Amino acid sequence: MLRVVRAEDRYRGGDLAAGIDTRHAFSFGRFYDPGNVRFGPLTACNEERLAPGSGFPAHRHRDLEIVSWVVEGELTHEDASGAATVLGPGDVQRLSAGDGTVHAEHNAGGAPLCFVQMWLVPATPGGAPEYEVVRGIADGTPYALPRTDAVLHVRRLTGGERTALPAAPLAYVHVVRGTVSLDGGRAALRPGDSARLTGAGELAVTAGGGPAELLVWELAAT
Q: Strand 92-96 to strand 42-50: parallel, antiparallel, or no bridges (unpaired)?
């Protein structure tokens, strides 16, 4: 089973007057579709575009695994203590909100910022909050979330290169840059497009005429 969500069909949120442009792949905030609430434990995949100086002031989360991937620019993250971390392209950030924590996110640089933020529901609620950054994660290195049955794979392909997708009960593919086609020409995907695969078995994606970058979630069925 395959479901494709095109970049132009994402829910348009954020606050343009404040320099925040958000594209939601799932129901979020005032955008609610009962048929598009989650995919396995994945409950949000937001493309965030922040103008220089804009951002999200301190706000609270609980019982979420929040994973961020910078596409371009620099993301400044402040934790509950006020300590700041600067993230760039290739860094994976995980915030396990546990039984409750506060954080803030800003574009403190002079260039536009674009990042993808994904929310997953933990297998067991509660617990102490955790924060982790993996710098410059290598292509093909799996990143397993400790509190959710989910593994993130980063794929960077050259033009025409082919890579296998995980043969998991559920797989979620988000195209960061470039164009790719699913095995057998089942779908052509462009930047911002995503594919949700259920029980698809062994499939592959092939990059188009130039480089491509993908975020692939290997997920358990819920």
A: unpaired
- The string of pLDDT tens digits covering residues 51-68 is 999 999 999 999 999 999
Phi-psi group of 101: left, alpha or beta (phi > 0 → left; psi -120 to 50 → alpha; rest → beta): beta
pTM above 0.85, yes or no: yes
Identify the bridge partners of residue 94 per DSSP, sorted by sequence position: 67, 132
Cβ–Cβ under 8 Å, residues 143 and 163: no
CB 77 within 8 A of CB 85: yes
Task: Using only the alpha carbons of the chain, give its radius of gyration.
Answer: 17
SS3 17: helix
CB-based contact 194:25 (threshold 8 Å): yes
Q: Count other Cβ atoms within 10 Å, centred on residue 134.
A: 14
Predicted confidence at residue 80, as pLDDT, reads 86
Closest to 113 measured CA to CA, from 154, 145, 71: 71
Torsion of CA 207, 209, 210, 216, to 10 degrees: -10
Q: What share of the chain is helix, strand, coil (3-state, %, to 5)?
A: 5, 50, 45
Give the C-alpha separation, 154 to 142, whole Å.
7
Given the structure tokens 């640089």, which residue do they identify? 109
